[in-house]
UniProtKB/TrEMBL annotation:
Natural source organism: Rugosimonospora africana
Protein name, as recorded: Uncharacterized protein
Origin superkingdom: Bacteria
Amino acid sequence: MAKVRDERLAWLAVRDRLNRRSRRRSVLGRLFGNLTPTGTGFGTDLSRGSVKSRMMRYSFAVDDVAQRLTPEERQALRATGQVPDWFLGAVEKRFRELRWRRRGGIFG
């Protein structure tokens, strides 16, 4: 069996939860998304692109945060396929930092 990096194992452990989070729409997204027929139109195209973009930022965040795992946490990840309790909170924080940087901070 090929060796899988700990960062990849961490991604696999949290991917489904992050996918659900990335699909949440804002109030305006729900409003405009509901104005178009399901599966077609303006709202659908925008939401697909934004979900993909969010998942990409989440993947970078998971990779960054996974590097902070201690040897004991890495061993537990390999044994159970579960990340520590603090992990998702740290991923969300890193995700926001990446989004902030992409937007150029306050004046971006």
